[in-house]
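Students often ask why inverse folding is considered easier than folding. One informal answer: many sequences map to the same fold, so there is more than one right answer. In these notes we will look at a single instance of the problem. The structure comes first.
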C-alpha cells in the first residue's frame, strides 16, 4: 500500500466520523458546518467520495460473491406451472376466467 492510498483512507475515515457527527447532531448541514468551521463544499465533496467508495466496494464484493445470496435475503423464483386467472365471487357464486377462456361463454351471463 502506497502513501497516497494510506492518506486517502485516513481522510475517508476522518470524514466518515464528521458525517456521522452531523447526522447525530440533528443540525442541518449548513448549521453543522458553520459550528465546526467546515466549508459546505468540503462536506459535500467528502460525502460524495465516501458514497463512491462504498459503491465501489459493493461492486467488488458482488463480483467476488457472484450468485451467492447474502444471509437474511430471500431468493424469489418464478413458478412456471402457474396460470394467470381471475376469480370473481358474487353472493356465493364464482367465475374463473383464464387465458384460454372463451369470451362467448360469458357474453350473455346475467
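Output (designed amino acids):
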Amino acid at each position: 500500500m502506497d502513501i497516497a492510498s494510506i492518506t486517502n483512507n485516513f481522510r475517508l475515515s476522518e470524514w466518515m466520523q464528521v458525517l456521522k457527527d452531523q447526522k447525530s447532531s440533528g443540525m442541518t448541514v449548513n448549521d453543522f458546518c458553520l459550528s465546526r468551521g467546515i466549508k459546505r463544499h468540503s462536506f459535500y465533496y467528502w460525502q460524495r467520495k465516501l458514497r463512491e467508495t462504498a459503491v465501489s466496494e459493493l461492486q467488488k464484493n458482488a463480483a467476488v460473491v457472484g450468485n451467492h445470496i447474502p444471509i437474511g435475503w430471500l431468493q424469489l423464483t418464478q413458478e412456471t406451472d402457474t396460470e394467470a386467472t381471475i376469480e370473481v365471487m358474487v353472493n356465493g357464486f364464482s367465475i374463473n376466467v383464464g387465458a384460454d377462456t372463451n369470451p362467448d361463454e360469458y357474453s350473455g351471463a346475467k
